[in-house]
Amino acid sequence: EVQLVDSGGGLVQAGGSLRLSCSASGFTFSRYWMSWVRQAPGKGLEWVANINKDGTERNYVDSLKGRFTISRDNSKNSLFLQMSSLGLNDTAVYYCWAGGSYWGRGTLVTVFS
Amino acid sequence: SYALTQPPSVSVSPGQTARITCSGDAVGNVYVYWYQQKPGQAPVLVIQKDSERPSGIPERFSGSSSGTTVTLTISGVQPEDEADYYCQSSDGRGGSVFGTGTKVSV
Known about the structure:
The complex is a heterodimer. By secondary structure, chain A is an all-beta fold. Chain A has strands at 3-7, 10-13, 18-25, 34-39, 45-51, 58-60, 68-73, 78-83, 92-97, 107-112. Chain B has strands spanning 9-11, 18-23, 32-37, 44-47, 61-66, 69-74, 83-90, 96-98, 102-105. The model of chain B has no long low-confidence stretch (mean pLDDT 95). The A-B interface holds A 35, 37, 44-47, 49-50, 57, 59-62, 95, 100-101, 103-106 and B 1, 33, 35, 37, 42-45, 48, 54, 84, 86, 88, 91, 93-101.
């Protein structure tokens, strides 16, 4: 059974940093592009970033302005999102996504002033 | 930046047909995927590559494409189909983009 377990969310003060993790199982992680998708409270889905199979290519949504870094460790079947200079509008549920129906359950990030 | 536009809401009675459109300049040149999301849950893929239905998705869900618009059709809507629906495609620069989302009320 495919499982993506997101973790690392929590409360963080504006301007702070947070690192999200996603642990994958049930499929060959190293063969998949991986993404992070977020959803602010009451809002729609927003694609945040993706990374290719071996970690050599990364893409980000323009609005992030270099504040987030996506990475992966194929030896540990893990995906990461390092977030810095967090602002109130970064408050959202962050989902790990392997494409198609492979989604994590999400981890909530709440930024407070 | 590339955007996919959907109507904010669609309201249908049980047994009727719901149609949700998704418009974007590159639609027709890239595959579009459709996701269903219920409150508090992760999205579920209901249509892939414009019109393919993944295994386990009821036959009442179908997809079509015409020009710069793709359409998700739910025929014979059931109460359990009440949810938010999002289209998604490549942004043409290595990333992805999601549509603005449509709330289907039954």
